[in-house]
Amino acid sequence: MYLCSRILNRFLKDTNSVDSVMPTLLENGWSVFAILIGNLAAVAAATPLFLIPLVIIIATLFAIQRYYKAGALAMQRIEAVTRSPVVSHFTEVLNGSSTIRAFRAAVRMLCEAVGLLCLT
Questions:
Q1: Domain with 6 in it
Q2: pLDDT digit string, tens, across residues 31-45
Q3: How many domains does the chain have?
Q4: What mean pLDDT is predicted for residues 84-90?
Q5: pTM (2 decimals)?
Q6: What's phi and psi for 96, nearest 5 deg?
Q7: Same domain, 61 and 92
Q8: Could you tell me if 31 and 56 lie in one domain?
Q9: How far apart are CA 14 and CA 33, in angstroms?
């Protein structure tokens, strides 16, 4: 029962974020985008030679973005794989804390969490 309520709470929080936060973020994003396009159009109308470096800069930024995105995704996968055992162990210790205290195994569990070899 406790697990079901935790899952429901998580979904409710996500739904609340989508319903309340996302519209504001989208509105702000579109406003900033419209201001940017307006400013670029005004500068391009005043000095048409501005468009040449602008196209080069935009092409360079897209190339950098493609290069960065591949590395960022790989880094996120590696982080998720390495963090998963730590999070799993921490959750198990929290859920079994009363049992750990009953068997006086707190030192052993702490050593496992840190990765040390305990001789107790």
A1: 1-46
A2: 999 999 999 999 999
A3: 2
A4: 71
A5: 0.46
A6: -105, 25
A7: yes
A8: no
A9: 26
